[in-house]
Design a protein that fits this description.
Elements (H helix, E strand, L loop, with lengths): L3 H53 L1 E2 L4 E2 L1 H12 L4 E5 L5 E4 H4 L1 H18 L5 E11 L2 E12 L5 H51 L14 H50 L7 H30 L6 E4 H18 L2 E7 L3 E4 L1 H17 L4 E12 L2 E10 L21 H7 L5 H11 L3 E6 L8 E8 L8
Parallel strand pairs: 8-10
Antiparallel strand pairs: 1-2, 3-4, 3-6, 5-6, 7-9, 10-11, 11-13, 12-13
Bound molecules: adenosine-5'-diphosphate (ADP).
């Protein structure tokens, strides 16, 4: 497998080379085309100039051409690539450059033909063109101009084109070289944070959750990659930490009742305690409480492990609250406590069973910790800066919660009054389950109580976002 740095450098350099090549070819093509057009125009102008020069050598009084002048002009244009032959009005050849210097003519024909055919693959040849010479309205002869067609480059023009092409070639090569250097540097810059993330991921895989990498990268994706790796390390670290704490807490919670049970049973076996139905019943109660604790722990660990996967549906929260309250009416009545509801319709998009569990936990606490008076379930719409939401509360006139305990009631295994909650069979998990569920719905939960326990009961309020629009998301 190819290394990331080399791969990026290769791709980058490859595209730059292709671009430079195509660009150079197009520039070269256009430059040659434009230059050929310019040369063709020049040849036309020069042909007109040759004709004019020869016409000027004609003397109308003697009806003859100035021989000395024609010699100079004809030889001059021969060196420019034009082979001229002059005929008088009667059609007699009066001057021909081949008669002047046959050898030079052959050299020039050979030189231009070789240049144009071999270097520029023009595929043309020397061809004559006839032009009439006139003075006023009088025909004074004809000029036969032979040159390489359709156009030809003289030595200096060919040299110019060669220089231009060489310049394109050299600048293209320099650019490609620079691009390769830049692409290697760029590839290293891009690959470095990716390699750092790879190394960090390997360390995390080996259990080093304290691994962190620098996040400040200009490219958003690389910045996000570093953040994701750090987030992963943190989440795994927290998970491990949570698991350790959870195991310690569970061990602690189980140890005490198990030690008590063991002590009681041993005392009965050893005959220290008399075996009586009351003592056995007390042991059974402890066992029932323990199995309740195990059930709660199972729910809690499920919730943590799944990060609470919610299966949301649309329903009326008021309907759910009424059904939950109904379940607790017989229990409340048994204790002589009245249970009333005051519910406004509240359509929500949430996990029905989990929200039901929240309400069951709150109501069972309310019934457990209320000896007399009443329990009220209320549901109202409310609005805050965070948007519209529903406030679902369970208020009781029970023993209340001491101010110093209030901040801890949602912690796992917290019980305000351990001896009392032992009586009530409390495990200290119900509220932490309720809080986890409400928070997974994007809501929050709070507990309020009268300042002194036993004076005014408690109110537990779950705030759930009015999440109807979530259905469309
Ligand atoms: P538990 O199973 O012990 O009730 P919870 O997590 O449901 O566990 O509650 C934690 C603690 O909060 C309880 O032990 C109790 O001391 C206190 N608490 C909860 N609800 C009430 C309430 N309605 N009135 C008084 N105290 C409460």
């Amino acid at each position: 497998m190819i290394r990331l740095r080399n791969y990026i450098a290769f791709i980058y350099a490859f595209f730059i080379c292709i671009t430079v090549f195509v660009l150079s070819a197009v520039i070269n093509m256009f430059a040659e085309k434009l230059f050929a057009e310019y040369i063709t125009g020049n040849i036309r102008l020069q042909t007109e100039e040759i004709i004019r020069s020869f016409e000027e050598q004609y003397d109308p009084f003697t009806a003859r051409y100035n021989r000395a002048g024609i010699d100079v002009i004809g030889m001059h244009y021969l060196h420019q690539g034009y082979l001229v032959s002059l005929a008088d009005a009667a059609g007699r050849v009066v001057w021909d450059v081949r008669d002047m210097d046959m050898e030079e003519c052959a050299v020039i024909i050979e030189e231009i033909s070789a240049r144009m055919n071999n270097e520029y693959r023009a595929g043309g040849s020397f061809a004559p063109r006839l032009h009439n010479l006139v003075l006023g309205n009088t025909n004074i002869g004809a000029l036969r101009i032979e040159s390489y067609g359709p156009f030809f480059y003289r030595e200096n023009e060919a040299a110019f084109l060669k220089t231009l092409n060489r310049f394109l070639l050299v600048s293209g090569a320099v650019f490609v070289l620079l691009s390769v250097i830049v692409s290697v540097c760029l590839a290293s810059v891009i690959a470095r944070p990716v390699l750092r993330a790879r190394d960090a991921a390997r360390r995390i895989a080996h259990g080093d959750f304290s691994t962190r990498i620098a996040e400040g990268h200009a490219a958003r994706e690389l910045h996000e990659l570093s953040r994701a790796v750090n987030g992963l390390a943190e989440a795994l670290g927290n998970g491990e930490e949570w698991q350790k704490r959870q195991s310690a807490d569970i061990a602690h919670e189980l140890r005490t009742p198990l030690t008590t049970l063991r002590g009681n049973i041993e005392a009965m076996i050893d005959g220290i305690w008399e075996l009586s139905p009351e003592r056995l019943e007390s042991c059974l109660e402890e066992i029932v409480r323990l199995s309740g604790l195990v059930d709660d722990i199972a729910v809690l660990s499920l919730i943590r492990r799944e990060h609470i996967v919610l299966s949301k549906t649309g329903f009326d929260l008021a309907h759910l609250a009424a059904r939950a309250a109904e379940q607790f009416v017989p229990l409340a009545r048994e204790k002589g406590v009245t249970l009333s509801v005051n519910l406004d319709p509240a359509p929500v998009y949430a996990d029905y069973n989990r929200i039901m569990q929240v309400l069951v936990n709150l109501l069972s606490n309310a019934v457990k910790y209320t000896a007399q008076g009443n329990i009220t379930v209320t549901l109202h719409a409310a609005a805050s800066r965070g948007g519209a939401h529903h406030e679902l509360s369970v208020a009781d006139t029970g023993c209340g919660i001491a101010a110093e305990d209030l901040p801890h009631v949602f912690e796992r295994f917290f019980r305000a009054d351990r001896s009392r909650s032992r009586e009530t069979g409390g495990t200290g998990i119900g509220l932490s389950i309720a809080a986890a569920i409400v928070e997974a719905h994007g809501g929050s939960i709070r507990a309020e109580s009268a300042a002194a326990p036993g004076t005014g009961g408690s109110v537990f309020t779950a705030t759930l976002p009015a999440d109807i629009s979530a259905r469309q998301q």
